[in-house]
Amino acid sequence: MPRLGMTLEEIRDLIGSGEIIGAADFRCESVASLNQAGADQLSFIKDERYVDQARASKAGALLVPHPMDELDTNQLVVSDPYRCFGLLLGRISEQSQRQPRGVHPQAVVHESARLGQDVTIGAGAVIREETVIGDRSVLYANVYLGQRSVVGAENVIYPGVVIREDTTIGDRVVIHGGSVIGADGYGFVQHEGRHIKVPQVGGILIGDDVEIGALTTIDRATLDRTIIGCGTKVGDQCHIAHNCKIGENVLLLPMVAVSGSVTVGDGAVLAGRSGTADNLRIGAGAVLGGTAVAFKDVPDGATMWGNPAREKGTELRIQAALGRLPEMQRDLRKIKKKLDL
Amino acid sequence: MPRLGMTLEEIRDLIGSGEIIGAADFRCESVASLNQAGADQLSFIKDERYVDQARASKAGALLVPHPMDELDTNQLVVSDPYRCFGLLLGRISEQSQRQPRGVHPQAVVHESARLGQDVTIGAGAVIREETVIGDRSVLYANVYLGQRSVVGAENVIYPGVVIREDTTIGDRVVIHGGSVIGADGYGFVQHEGRHIKVPQVGGILIGDDVEIGALTTIDRATLDRTIIGCGTKVGDQCHIAHNCKIGENVLLLPMVAVSGSVTVGDGAVLAGRSGTADNLRIGAGAVLGGTAVAFKDVPDGATMWGNPAREKGTELRIQAALGRLPEMQRDLRKIKKKLDL
Amino acid sequence: MPRLGMTLEEIRDLIGSGEIIGAADFRCESVASLNQAGADQLSFIKDERYVDQARASKAGALLVPHPMDELDTNQLVVSDPYRCFGLLLGRISEQSQRQPRGVHPQAVVHESARLGQDVTIGAGAVIREETVIGDRSVLYANVYLGQRSVVGAENVIYPGVVIREDTTIGDRVVIHGGSVIGADGYGFVQHEGRHIKVPQVGGILIGDDVEIGALTTIDRATLDRTIIGCGTKVGDQCHIAHNCKIGENVLLLPMVAVSGSVTVGDGAVLAGRSGTADNLRIGAGAVLGGTAVAFKDVPDGATMWGNPAREKGTELRIQAALGRLPEMQRDLRKIKKKLDL
Questions:
Q1: Which of A163, A186, B309, C228 lies at a 20 to 30 A Cα distance from C237?
Q2: Which residues of chain C make contact with A280, given a CB cutoff of 8 A?
Q3: Cross-chain CB nearest to A322 (options B259, B295, B318)
């Protein structure tokens, strides 16, 4: 149960504006969705589509976009209830994860590592030679930070994350549990029937405000740097291969696979389990639908579906026609018979 | 080599019934499959289909469903050889994993954690504030258990598993190496071209007798709880997104992806690498074939194949017709020519 | 920036042959790709296709396959520039990962473990009972090596890797961060509506010169051994299920899924995110294209594309025809009208 423990008045003060309908001193013990909320909980109405659910809700208080006269629930009227609710969630999240600052005595920090102010390092974390960790960053238990890697300020690196050597990470980056940043890319050349490794000696550059899900792999470049642009959000279990250049504010949903040396433009969206062949360019603002796989370049702003990915309208027409394919086959047989073919 | 070290008589006593043909004091040193078994090993015949393989087998002894007069091997006749063999495997498994009980001196257990009787905690495991671990549970090396999380009795949590804060796990649950339970779900809202995180403050509830494979991610709910029902078995590298409600006795085979807020009914089977779009309902007892992806609700008991998933018979007819598509195209050309179209 | 710090003459001596054009004492501080290289960097020309890029490159020196008179850059002419460049990368890689030898005081090594000469074990690694580690092997921080497992000589096991009990690994094997070797295979039998675990008591055998990417799972056999043949290279986030026999010099690119009891022949190539149903045989030298999924045996040397996988030529014809499917449907309607069907 996500604990809040604030009155409506305190909530309004935190948000900075809003009109209270009902009891300003009503105390919201915690938050919940409309369906699940009980008499001491706060919920919210995202927009008009949720009004019916709100009527049926047992929530003690609601964030609403305008006064809802038909409800006798306590209300706080705000311009963007979803965003305001998110603000409250942020506060709850912060409190629920609060922990002791400082370096745990069972962390292993090399003497050459440079730590900023108020850094937190959990038990079993291993911080190698010549690393740098910025102010207020939190590295949880059993994180590994390789030689010469640099982590910016206000990062949150969850337990078990492996960051290999020569990785550079910006500020306010979040990396969820168990992800591996900087493993060798898949590079082999054939020589007399055997596969010889091409050493992967490049690095990785992750911009500010990036979030990376759990158990994701981002491989180091062969020579230069694999790049994740600022503000990009990567889901769980994604794979970003060596030498990729992912733009800014890109969305890679869970289980997306970006193959080697692919460029993804700013603001592109790769939906769940979509992917690309290698050496492609996915345009700025382009969209790959869920499980779509691009085998060719995708133009800026295009929306592609299917595997192989086609322009969305084309793919939808093909899928509709596919449903009638057995019938088409029967028709053809009849026609051939009729025409003696 | 999985060591057994029991005579046929001891095996019969362990199973509780069965008729011995041959030497009751024949000692089965270990177990193996029919093909691999040698003169001091025990194997088994699942059913009639394996009789020919049994004839060619060099196994010193066999579990059989009825006397096999044509074989001169030692036999133990039992009503369900497969299940009885499984019983022996369980005994072997237990012995091969036996380890010292107690908390390893290099585990890091917070003073506020409450541990049941005969709990085992491996080196490097980190047990945070206000956690609870039930009787006889085993947490291997380098496991992380976050604040306020509760693990029931007789769990086995393999090395490197990360369980984030506010997770509740039932009894007799197995979680394989490196899985991450309770990472933040993928929730962002766009605001002036940037992606703003929706804090994920909900929890996770995992029922009794659940097994979770290696390197699987189960994300915490945004507000309420992501739920895995009792008796459900999840394979390696699955992804269960935030807010999902997975029913009881569901099978999720390896690499399955269940997107956000999906409900999966009791007894459903999602075969290898199948998946769903978000906000769907997969019915009780429904089956998704290997690599099938549901983009719409699936009714109770339906069997769906393909991507996008279609009713199995339909998909098979489409696939059959697809094989003849180039030929259909040639036919059409001929017809159009003949008809002057 | 991958540091090199060698003169062209020193590089020629390291390679063992080659003709220098320009300054033999030119010092290459580091290496880079043609596009990125600067005045103090070395790059290379793989073959004739890169000559134009070479002309535009700012590299201070180049490895070239023959004298390039039109360039005024310093050149080292060698018979196979790509392979020679790889040799230099290997040297850089070795230097950039160099670390203290020996067992870290915060590693947990059981007294019954047998360690070869010059073994390196990182902080937080846990080495269990009756294990063996060969000469010069490096186990990074937080690696787990289960009971009775054997690691050969000159292995590199990156941070957080979990190797369960009774695993045998050859020489010169590399396993990247977080991979889990030897988790239980997915084996359950149904009994009165519930799923009963089939204990997985077999082992794993990994041959010499195998490389395994990050966050990959290889499951232990039910009874015998899951086998990965010598020289096989497995990418990130692959899943190899129980009882598989993967041949020698096989390539499994990232995110490949090989289902239970599959045999893959020597020299086969499974491209990115391809996969197989269970109990199949993928022939020697066979190729599965990117995202192709085999639901039937694949003959030796065959190249299969698509899901379900078909012979490549067939699949290409089907995909081409699919693009015209909506048009075919319109044609059919016209024909039926004309023929009064």
A1: B309
A2: none
A3: B318
CB contact under 8 A, C237 and A237: yes
Cα separation, C184 vs C175, whole angstroms: 19
**pTM attached to this predicted model:** 0.95
CATH number of B102-315: 2.160.10.10
User: For residues A31 and A88, is the Cβ–Cβ distance under 8 A?
Assistant: yes
Interface probe with A: pick from C99, C237, C266, most Cβ of A within 10 Å: C237
DSSP C309: T
Contacts of B339 in chain C (CB under 8 A): 335, 338-339
DSSP state of A303: E
Alpha-carbon span C160 to B307, nearest angstrom: 35
CA distance C149 to chain B (A): 12
* Distance separating alpha carbons of residues C64 and C18, to the nearest angstrom: 10
CB within 8 Å of chain A, chain B residues 295-324 = 295, 307-308, 310, 314, 317-318, 320-322, 324
Query: Is B223's Cβ below 8 Å from some Cβ in C?
Result: no
pLDDT digits (tens, 9 = 90+) for A139-163: 999 999 999 999 999 999 999 999 9
In this structure, what token pair is assigned to residue A327?
A: 């019938």
What is d(CA A43, CA C102) in angstroms, rounded to the nearest whole number?
A: 57
C-alpha dist (Å) from residue C287 to A226, B106, C205, C250, C291:
28, 48, 24, 10, 12
C interface mutation test: which of B126, B236, B287, B293 has the most C CBs within 10 A?
B236
Which residues lie below 8 Å from residue A330, measured CB to CB, with a gap of 6+?
Answer: none
Q: What is the pLDDT of residue C1?
A: 64
Inter-chain residue contact B83 with C142, CB threshold 8 Å: no
Least confident interval from B140-144, B329-333, C191-195, C273-277? C191-195
Which residues touch B143 (CB under 8 Å, ≥6 apart)? B121, B122, B125, B126, B157, B158, B159, B160, B161, B162, B163
The identity of residue A167, as a single letter, is T
The ipTM (two decimal places) reads 0.94
Residue type, C143: V
Burial of C303 (0-12, 13-18, 19+ CB in 10 A): middle
Question: What are residue A257's DSSP bridge partners?
Answer: A239, A275
Q: Does B191 touch chain A (CB under 8 A)?
A: yes
Q: Quick one: pLDDT at residue A1? A: 64
Q: Mean pLDDT check: name the lowest of A189-203, A210-224, B281-295.
A: A189-203
Q: Which residue has the tokens 């290496």?
A: C31
Is the Cβ of A237 closer than 8 Å to some Cβ of chain C?
yes
Beta bridge mates, B30? B3, B41
Query: Cα torsion for B34, B37, B43, B46, to the nearest 10°?
Result: -10
Identify which of A201, A239, A331 has the shortest CB distance to residue C93: A201
**pLDDT category, C192, cuts 50, 70, 90?**
confident
3-class secondary-structure state, position B167:
strand
- Whose CA is closest to C141, among B282, B124, A114, A121? B124
Q: Which CATH number fits domain B3-96: 3.40.640.10, 3.40.1390.10, 3.40.50.1110, 2.30.30.40?
A: 3.40.1390.10
Per-domain residue ranges for chain A? Answer: 3-96, 102-315
Which chains are adjacent to chain C, needing at least 3 Cβ pairs under 8 Å? Answer: A, B
The nearest CA of chain B is from the CA of C294 a distance in Å of 11
Residues of C in contact with B93 (CB under 8 A): 199-201
Q: How far apart are CA C127 and CA C142, in angstroms?
A: 10
Q: Would you report the helix, strand and coil content of chain A in percent, each value rounded to 5?
A: 15, 30, 50
Are the Cβ atoms of B160 and C166 closer than 8 angstroms? no
- Interatomic CA distance for residues A274 and A305, integer angstroms: 9
Q: Do B331 and A325 touch (CB under 8 A)?
A: no
For A250, name the nearest residue in chain B, comparing CA atoms only: B195
Distance CA B155, CA B168 (A): 12
